[in-house]
Amino acid sequence: LDAPVSGGEIGAIDGTLTFMVGGDSTALGQVLPVLSAMGKPERIVHVGESGAGQVCKACNQIVLGGTMTVVAEAIALARKNGVDPMKVRAALMGGFAQSRVLEVHGERMIKANYKPGFKGRLFKKDLGIAMTALAEAGVPAAASAVVTQLVHAQVAQGHGEDDYSAIAEVIFDLAGLAEP
């Protein structure tokens, strides 16, 4: 089985990890009690044959990177125009823009709280895997390529040990914004 996870350190501590499992369903049934100690049964998803879990994890990282980047851009736009980003975030949480990334990481970005849940340098590694998978599958990756470069900049600027939401600092720097 391949069974990458999502949920970060907090999910591991709380036992709420999401498992993206590829491989034999009989084998999954045998290890389900072990996985259930780290994630709720509804968060243990059999996504296909062996290797499918890794593909799913790459998809997860692509969506996270893109979403975190645009959340940071929205916060930067609010700040540049003198609009309270916390109020913007609250308003967006009531509409179709609502997401866990906006909820959790948006607040982290606004408060510049980058205590790691998932380190930027690890996200850089995961995006490298995702970019390789995209290239091998022949999938255009214009947005993911930009996000990958921003994560490389995050690490190069010394934020590799910070949470991956510190990608916001790259966006804020590019926008000419000082610390909040």
What can be said about this structure in brief?
Helices cover 62% and strands 7% of the residues. It has eight helices and three strands; from the N terminus they run E-H-E-H-E-H-H-H-H-H-H. The longest helix has 29 residues, at 52-80.
Write the layout of secondary structure elements.
Elements lengths: L4 E2 L1 H7 L3 E5 L2 H12 L7 E5 L3 H29 L4 H8 L7 H12 L8 H18 L4 H18 L7 H8 L6
Parallel strand pairs: 2-3
Antiparallel strand pairs: 1-2
Helix pairs in contact: 3-5, 3-6, 3-7, 3-8, 4-5, 6-7, 7-8
Description:
The chain has eight helices and three strands, in the order E-H-E-H-E-H-H-H-H-H-H. The longest helix has 29 residues, at 52-80. 33% of the residues are buried. The termini are far apart. It has a three-stranded mixed beta sheet with strand order 1-2-3. The protein is globular, with a radius of gyration of 17 Å. The protein has 180 residues and is mainly alpha-helical. The model has no long low-confidence stretch (mean pLDDT 95). The protein has helices at residues 8-14, 25-36, 52-80, 85-92, 100-111, 120-137, 142-159, 167-174, and strands at 5-6, 18-22, 44-48.
Poorly predicted sequence stretches spanning 5 or more consecutive residues: none
Output the structural class: mainly alpha
Helical content band: 55-70%
What's the average pLDDT? 95
Q: Give the N-terminus to C-terminus distance in angstroms.
A: 45 Å
For the biggest sheet, the summary is: 3 strands, mixed
Tally of helical runs: 8
Radius of gyration: 17 Å
What's the count of strands?
A: 3
Q: Shape, please?
A: globular
| Order of secondary-structure elements | EHEHEHHHHHH
Strand content: 5-15%
**Main sheet: strand order:** 1-2-3
